[in-house]
From TrEMBL:
Keywords: Cell membrane, Electron transport, Membrane, Oxidoreductase, Transmembrane, Transmembrane helix, Transport. It is a multi-pass membrane protein. GO terms for biological process: anaerobic electron transport chain. The keyword DNA repair does not apply. PANTHER family: NITRATE REDUCTASE PRIVATE CHAPERONE, REDOX ENZYME MATURATION PROTEIN REMP FAMILY, RESPIRATORY NITRATE REDUCTASE 1 GAMMA CHAIN. It is found in: Cell membrane. The chain crosses the membrane at residues 6-26, 70-95, 115-136, 197-215. This is Nitrate reductase gamma subunit. Residues 67-222 form the NarG-like domain.
């Protein structure tokens, strides 16, 4: 069983995750978009569009305008999740000595890394609990929720709880062994998984999450970029001069209007 969890499952999970995400994004991009969806005031150039998408991604401005209390916890969730993911990559690679790059001693770097990682993990866990409580306590949100909404939050919460568990003082985690193990997976030379029950449980849950991700509502992470690309698309100009090239991959989509047959009356965006 440990052989499967440690040396087979990661490749299955990684393959399903990558193929599933790419497949769903490609399907989204092929769906006809018959009408201009640009929100005004629209950015005037490519730099403005990139800035608008980046600003929305970091600050969630749309949510802030509509529900400030929900925004706070959603924003904390996304920021702490980003810190946790980044901390995993940097912390494991440098064995918590990443802050020596800015002049700290190894001891100070390890202490700071531990404090930041623990804080981000706790904030992430609290944000998930608050959002889960909101789903079961707010009548309107509860009415609109389906089982997948609860499952998504619970699965991520289990991953976070087991991750935080590894930071408890009485739990010994061999970070160099984990680094060597992860390195073996990434270079396609897998080695036996470190025999630490908490780490194995955490790692198993992460793999389950990767397998589940492409088929879940968690795909909103990728959908955000597709959606925002349409909302910040160049504003239409009417009448559009004949022969003007389409503005984007979205503008080139065609769709047949209901009741018009197969090709007699179509709507083409941007032409």
């Amino acid at each position: 069983m440990l052989y499967f969890i440690g040396q087979v499952l990661p490749y299955i999970a990684g393959s399903i995750f990558l193929i599933g995400v790419v497949y769903r994004v490609m399907r989204w991009l092929k769906v006809p978009v018959p009408f201009q969806l640009t929100l005004f005031p629209a950015p005037k150039d490519g730099t403005g569009r990139v800035t608008a998408v980046a600003t929305e991604m970091v600050f969630l401005k749309s949510l802030y305008k509509n529900d400030k209390s929900l925004w706070l916890w959603v924003w904390l969730l996304h920021v702490s999740l980003a810190l946790v993911l980044g901390g995993h990559v940097v912390g494991i690679y440098y064995l918590m000595n990443q802050f020596t790059l800015i002049g700290l001693t190894p001891q100070a770097s390890q202490a700071l890394s531990s404090v930041l990682g623990t804080t981000a993990g706790i904030v992430l866990m609290v944000a998930l609990i608050v959002l889960f409580w909101r789903r079961i306590s707010d009548p309107e949100v509860k009415r609109l929720s389906d089982p997948a909404d609860y499952f998504d939050l619970l699965l991520i919460l289990l991953v976070v709880i087991t991750g935080n568990h590894m930071r408890l003082p009485n739990v010994h985690v061999d970070l160099p062994a984990i680094k060597a193990y992860i390195g073996g997976l990434l270079t396609f030379h897998p080695t036996p998984i470190p025999e630490n029950l908490v780490f194995i449980t955490h790692f198993l849950l992460v793999n389950i999450l990767l397998i589940y991700f492409p088929f879940s509502k968690l795909m909103h992470v990728a959908g955000f970029f597709v959606n925002r690309a349409m909302l910040v698309e160049a504003a239409p100009v009417y009448p559009t001069p004949a022969g003007t090239p389409v503005r984007s991959s979205f503008a080139s989509k065609q769709t047949v209007l209901p009741g018009t047959g197969t090709g007699q009356s179509t709507v083409t965006r941007g032409v």
